[in-house]
C-alpha cells in the first residue's frame, strides 16, 4: 500500500513535501513505541547533553531534518549558539566542552560510525569515568535512538524545517 499526500498532514507554508513515507500515519504503533523508547532513553539525561548527542549523530548521518530540529531545541534551551556551531569540530575545540560532553560526543562518534571494529575499549572507558552505569546506559540508548530517528527521516526523505512533534499525524 503506498502513501499518498492525503495520508499525511499539511506542512507549514513554503516547506516542500519531499516525504516518501510518513511513519506517524503509516505505522502509528511503531511510531508510538519509538517515541516511548525515546522518552525512556533520554530520561534523566541532562537536556543540553542530550541535544549535543542528537546534533552530533545527525551531523554524522547527514540528517538535515533531525539536525534542524535539535539545533532549534538546543537554542530554545538556551545553549550558546557558538557552542552549537562547534559540535561538528568538537575534537579541535575540546576546551569549549565539558569532560562529560566530550566523552558523550566521542561515544556518539563511535556508536554512530560503528563499523567492523565497534566501540574501542578506551572510548568506553573514558565515558565510564564521566557517567555512572545508569547514566551511561541512558547516554548509549540516546545515541542509539537518534541514529534510529536519523535513518527513518533520511529513508522517508523528511525535509529540514519540518517538526513532526508540531503536526497532527
Task: Give a structural overview.
The two termini are 18 Å apart. The chain is globular and about 45 Å long. It is built from 8 helices and no strands. By secondary structure, it is mainly alpha-helical. The longest helix is centred in the C-terminal third of the chain and has 24 residues, at 133-156.
Mean pLDDT across all amino acids: 90
Count of DSSP strands: 0
Which structural class is indicated by helix and strand composition? Answer: mainly alpha
> What fraction, in percent, of the residue positions are helical?
55-70%
Major β-sheet profile: none
- Series of secondary-structure elements, N-terminal to C-terminal: HHHHHHHH
Rg over alpha carbons: 17 Å
> Helix segment count?
8
So what's the overall shape?
globular
* Residues in β-strands, percent: under 5%
How far the N terminus sits from the C terminus, by CA atoms, comes to 18 Å
Unreliable stretches (pLDDT < 50, length at least 5) are 1-6
In short:
With 169 residues, the protein is an all-alpha fold. The protein has helices at residues 23-26, 28-42, 47-61, 64-77, 81-85, 99-112, 121-130, 133-156.
